[in-house]
Amino acid sequence: MATRKAHEVDAFLRRPDPAFALFLVYGPNAGLVNERARHLARGYVEDPEDAFQLVKLEGDEIASDPARLADEAGTIGLFGGRRSIWVRAGSKNLTPLVQPLVAAPPTDARVVLEAGDLAARNPLRALVEGAKTGVALPCYADEARDIPALVDGILQEFGLSADRESKELLRQILAPDRLLIRREMEKLAAYAQGARQITAGDVEAVMADAAASVLDAVLDALFLGDMDALDPGLGRLFQEGEDAGVLVGAALRHAMTLHKARVSLDLGGDMDRVTDAARVFFKRKSAFQRQLTKWSRPGLESAIATLREAQAQARRMGALSESLASRAFITVAMRASRS
């Protein structure tokens, strides 16, 4: 069986086995899945900005043409060289497209499949794991302690480093989601262009807005039951191209943080100390405490269940992900408004 355990994936990615031509990157952590798929697809070719060397495909768009993926993988460039085919899976079954690659693996081409959370019996996962030249790479949740290493790795791509003070500030601001962290680090690198090291002043100048961003405003509106603020904020995020699954994941993490804090309060903890332990950015401290006052432990457990179900459905039905996310957000906000 060609697969790697979650803790083995980073080491594998540092030196991918050249015997593999087909890579399935999957799991519940959408940001980590995207980051690793990106690394595999871009790292194989000489110029990842060349659209012929790195071909990006949407799974739902090519699912009706079983030969499309094999044709792309078998195409030889005018000047030779290696190619990467990066496919983002959606709600449609990609197994028929991948089967020809298992039967006749491509040469000088790497096929990277980016997918959501797949059960052990999922046909696509089973197919890749059983292929001689295929490997499946699971991606599970990042944790807060992973943030400094993630920041260092992304900044190094831009020839930058971060001092201790700026790392601590970033740890407080950023959520443990690689896709969101990458976006914020790209903004920070653009701001610090020409410098060699990121300072706390740079972080405050660029990330203050990120910490009080539309997403944070949406999360606060969601758990305070402020429907008037929630609807336009969520609409803006969708218009800006934010992934619905990532937004639901952010809401789920926030709900779990609130639940942990609520448990501490119920056990007699002090509100300020509980809030500090939750590592809430100082500008959101007041809103966080109002949310804690509004929600009970059972209420948060119900919200967590709603968001988990929405996250799972959004991964299975990509075309409906925005509608599913909106419905879950409205459900949670209505519960908050009644409490």
UniProtKB/TrEMBL annotation:
Keyword entries, A-Z: DNA replication, DNA-directed DNA polymerase, Nucleotidyltransferase, Transferase
* GO molecular function list: DNA binding; DNA-directed DNA polymerase activity
**What is catalyzed by this enzyme?**
DNA(n) + a 2'-deoxyribonucleoside 5'-triphosphate = DNA(n+1) + diphosphate
Extract the InterPro entries matched here.
Answer: DNA_pol3_clamp-load_cplx_C (IPR008921), DNA_polIII_delta (IPR005790), P-loop_NTPase (IPR027417)
**Which superkingdom, per the lineage?**
Bacteria
Gene Ontology cellular component list? DNA polymerase III complex
Gene Ontology biological-process entries: DNA-templated DNA replication
| EC number in record | 2.7.7.7
Please give the family membership noted in the entry.
Belongs to the DNA polymerase HolA subunit family.
Q: What is this protein identified as?
A: DNA-directed DNA polymerase
